[in-house]
């Protein structure tokens, strides 16, 4: 067996392989998937000298532990956390050299939700429809990591960044999301639209890679009939009958039958990936055209 591999010592609550996703397959019922915090994943890849399409690991809340079979360069970005190599502190947000057989421990997120672990050469699991991403909704891609699993690595293709620590935006204390109203804003009362754009919602513990669920003011419908299923896009804010908005993230279904009151600006979605349960959420009207 090749020595270009990682052994999983501790998988964590939910650690998955992610890259830039598999766009262009919605007509087949396949979501885009990919890293929820794209900028953090891209930074991790740059720090270790990987290309933009290299696959990384996305952890959720409690990190993971890994043992490389050969010396590698790693970088951990996204949610701030303690990084250790064989028990000794190492840099978060910068390139770290890990010798063969040493244990890299990515600790629990101190802020935010998801950390990204890039390894020189990238995680080289078999791609499906052009992507190595784990899709929790459709089941495509590799399964979430388990203790004892072995992940193949690609050959290093570049030189690690010449920085000690790279600056990163911190996880949000309040999530402010620009939203383009529509396409089904007319399904809601005028009062519901006002509450949507002025009220304070909270991130629900039921959130996941499929959608960021919220609690807060109820958004009443102006129309009571059922809406035939129609296409859904990344960032769509769907409102189920209970009236609490759900923001569709990377593993979202490609169709849905609940009305969409608006679509979140794509540039605001990475912050949603780092919003912990209980975080305040505000929707503000975006300027320009939504493009949906």
Range of helix content: under 10%
Strand content: 25-35%
Structural class: mainly beta
Q: What is the radius of gyration? A: 20 Å
Tell me the number of strands: 20
Instruction: Output the strand order for the largest sheet.
Output: 12-19-16-17-14-13-20
Cα distance, first to last residue?
Answer: 47 Å
Number of separate helices: 3
Protein name: Biotin-dependent carboxyltransferase family protein
InterPro entries: CT_A_B, Cyclophilin-like_dom_sf, PxpC
Domain Carboxyltransferase: 27-290
Keywords: ATP-binding, Hydrolase, Nucleotide-binding
How would you portray this structure in words?
The protein is mostly beta strands. The protein is built from three helices and 20 strands. The protein is elongated. Pfam families: CT_A_B. This is Biotin-dependent carboxyltransferase family protein. Keywords: ATP-binding, Hydrolase, Nucleotide-binding.
Lay out the secondary structure.
Blueprint: E1 5-10, E2 16-18, H1 38-48, E3 56-58, E4 64-68, E5 72-78, E6 81-85, E7 88-90, E8 96-98, E9 104-109, E10 115-119, E11 150-152, E12 174-181, H2 190-198, E13 201-203, E14 211-215, E15 230-231, E16 236-238, E17 246-248, E18 255-256, E19 260-264, H3 269-273, E20 280-285
Parallel strand pairs: 12-20
Antiparallel strand pairs: 1-4, 1-11, 2-3, 3-10, 4-9, 5-8, 5-10, 6-7, 6-9, 12-19, 13-14, 13-20, 14-17, 15-18, 16-17, 16-19
Q: Which key phrases capture this entry?
A:
single chain; 292 residues; mainly beta; seven-stranded mixed β-barrel; six-stranded antiparallel sheet; 3 helices; 9% helix; elongated
